[in-house]
Design a protein that fits this description.
Elements lengths: L6 E3 L5 E8 L1 E8 L5 E6 L2 E7 L6 E9 L5 E9 L9 E3 L1 E5 L9 E7 L6 E4 L3 E3 L12 E4 L5 E7 L2 E8 L5 E6 L5 E4 L6 E10 L5 E8 L10 E3 L1 E7 L16
Antiparallel strand pairs: 1-8, 2-7, 3-6, 3-9, 4-5, 4-7, 10-21, 11-14, 12-13, 13-20, 14-19, 15-18, 15-21, 16-17, 16-19
Length: 254
């Protein structure tokens, strides 16, 4: 499995839902003797009927791809539709998407902004640095984390797209994000397994100028999932607006 984990279901009708902004999508998962039928829908339309049954176990297999989508937001659903109870598994390992950035002759540049860049990142509330915990094992580069309710992390950057990386586990939980003072969106970093270097926020086609991205820790008061982890941001900048296909891809945050 990519990064050692997958999301798997044996439930008839069990499904995974993905939303992305772009022109192409690639879904990867497993195949094997216990796997069966699945379907893929895009924007509410059935586009693919698949079968993952194989005599031997295979990993990181392409389950579906579509490279002809109009640029914009799309909703993708992969659903388990097994017909044989002995072959009832469907899983998704990761996905890759392509989006459009820049003009016809645009130069695409990428900048990594680590959590400890004091020019770009500003923090409010109680945060601590660590490189040796359940979410980032010994030897991994350090991260910044908080368990404080309403603790904030603010990233100021100039670019056309931004990807922020953190971690998911049974200790991480709900958080809120606001970009350029737009509507606040609530996400969750809770997962039963530990995953490091996970995408916790992504946005593209942001337009020119300086942008402000705010994270707010919003812990679940009823459980231990009260941690928010920030590792780094990757900012992509194009020299001109509009319709050049720059294959800027990212992997699934499980």
């Amino acid at each position: 499995f990519y990064d050692g984990t997958i999301s798997l279901t044996d439930t008839l009708g069990g499904h995974a839902y993905i939303q992305f902004n772009g022109t192409a999508i690639y879904l990867y998962g497993s195949q094997g003797p216990l796997y069966g039928e699945y379907i893929v829908s895009i924007d509410g339309t059935l586009v693919h009927k698949g079968y993952s049954g194989q005599e031997t176990q295979r990993f990181q297999q392409l389950l579906y791809s579509n490279t002809t989508l109009a640029m914009g937001f799309h909703n993708v659903t992969i659903t388990n539709t097994w017909t044989n109870a002995a072959r009832n598994l469907t899983d998704i390992d990761y996905y890759v998407w392509t989006t459009e950035l820049g003009g016809e002759n645009a130069i695409i540049t990428e900048q990594t902004i680590n959590w400890d860049n004091a020019t770009a990142w500003q923090y409010g509330g109680s945060w601590s640095a660590t490189g040796d915990n359940l979410m980032f094992p010994l030897g991994a580069r350090s991260v910044y984390s908080t368990v404080g309710a309403d603790a904030t992390a603010t990233l100021t950057f100039e670019g056309d797209a931004v990807t922020v990386y953190g971690a998911t586990s049974n200790l991480t939980g709900p958080y809120q994000v606001s970009l350029d003072q737009a509507s606040i969106i609530t996400y969750t970093a809770y997962h039963t397994e530990v995953n490091k270097e996970v995408i916790i926020f992504y946005a593209d086609n942001l337009g020119p100028g300086v942008h402000e991205l705010i994270f707010v820790n919003n812990p679940n008061e009823l459980g231990p999932d009260n941690t928010l982890v920030i590792e780094k941001a990757i900012v992509v900048q194009a020299t001109a607006p509009s319709a050049h296909h720059s294959k800027y891809v990212s992997r699934l945050s499980r």
